Amino acid sequence: MKRFILSALLAIPAAMTMAQTNPQSGFIITNEGDTIRGIIDFRTNNKLSKECSFWANGGKEKKIYRPGEIEAFRFDNKGKFFVTRRLNLNGTPELYFAEFMVQGMMNLYYVAYEGNEHYFFEREDGEMAELTNRQMSYTSVGDAKEGAKIILKEKKQQYGKVKQLLQESMSAVAEMDHENLTKKELIDIVRDYHNDVCTDGRSCIVYEYDEKADKVKIYPKVFASYNYFTKYRSDMQRQPDINYSGGSYEIGLGVDIDLARIMKGLSIDIGVAYAPKYKSKQDWQYYGHAARYTNEKSVLAISLGAVKCFGKGKIKPLVRAGGISAFHLGEKEIITYDFTSIPETREWDNSTEFRVYLGAGLQIPVDKHYVRVHGDWYNSVGTGGITGAKIVKWGVTAEFAF
To answer: Which one, of 23, 162, 22, 27, lies nearest residue 82 by Cα?
Structure first.
């Protein structure tokens, strides 16, 4: 059984490495200026800066375009807009798909590259200045200090060049005095530049980035499940050989965080579940006398895991895996002997245990929502307060995501 579970767990990341797509409608613009509509693979900013995977309308064959092979591509519904530009990100000018933040008299481009954020301001005459937000990662304090000095020197030089480029707008130059400017703040600066420079009544901004295009989709959900403990033992119980097996219902709330831009069908699953009452009765012999042992508790569980859906059909198979912190509340053991009518009650302190889980099921669309039904296996791997606990549980869960 352990070998099977280990193999299944190892198979999940292997399956996730398979090529996947996240199709979104959009269009490409060829180097000849022609517009071709179709489907574009909507992936991470880093990946989109290097390639555009495209299926033309009516076609089944995927074509991968590199920077320079097409002029631009854009997603529908106020989506992201990328154009081919020759930029110097690492000391050597190369072609990239740069994302338009603002298109107008002063263009603002964005490129994600090796964990860094590169912004390029481009004036109408083609003059360009770069602003880079770098991620710092060092192995020692000395390296960190030296790295910070280098980055600070680079930023001073870059800020000076950007200000020079924006000199026709005093308000835009003044806003550049702030440190660690965000994407939104840089867009505001370029917008202010247009407000100051474009004074003939026409609209000088052709395109502006919509932050909703990068917004991570989060789906709230409710769920209910039935679980059966095939094994439940604790070092706190009177008889160590008693197995408090039994079933319980639980209800819960959670969210699914869509990670389809990283991998099609992938999401992070976060849930909070509550089992109002778990009760298991077991008959046992105590020094030749019959005895009934009863375990009662409530359980609050917080889960964090990953879900991967497969296939292209409406009903999709899924696998899921993750971990759970379970809090046993008000747990007690009640022992009734045949020679007395007075039960002995042993109340335990609230305790916690950590479980891993592995499951499989189906995802079924319901209008703009979806339902998931899955079966899961749970096993305790660490405990706090019930150090000798051995817990194995099977469950069936139904979810509805909004």
So the answer is: 27
Single out the residue of 372, 39, 100, 328 nearest to residue 222, CA to CA.
Answer: 372
- CATH no. for 216-401: 2.40.160.20
Give the mean pLDDT of the chain.
Answer: 85
210's enclosing H/E stretch is none
Q: Which pTM was predicted?
A: 0.75
- Strands, E assignment, 218-366: 218-233, 246-258, 266-286, 289-309, 316-337, 344-347, 351-366
- pLDDT tens digits, residue range 346-376? 787 777 888 899 999 999 999 888 999 999 9
What is the Cα–Cα distance from 82 to 100, expressed in whole angstroms? 6
Residue 388: partners with Cβ closer than 8 Å, 6 or more residues away: 233, 234, 235, 240
- Give which of 81, 117, 399, 355 is closest to 267, Cα–Cα: 399
pLDDT digits (tens, 9 = 90+) for 69-102: 999 999 998 899 999 999 998 888 999 999 999 9
Q: What is the DSSP letter of 188?
A: H
Residue 85, Cβ density class (10 Å: 0-12 exposed, 13-18 middle, ≥19 buried): buried
For the purposes of burial, counting CB atoms within 10 Å of the CB of 317, is it exposed (0-12), middle (13-18) or buried (19 or more)? middle
52 residue type, one letter? C
- Look up residue 121 and give its two tokens: 């301001």
Tens-digit pLDDT profile for residues 191-207: 999 989 888 766 788 89
Delimit the domains of the chain by residue range. 16-213, 216-401
Lowest mean pLDDT among 132-146, 298-312, 318-332: 132-146
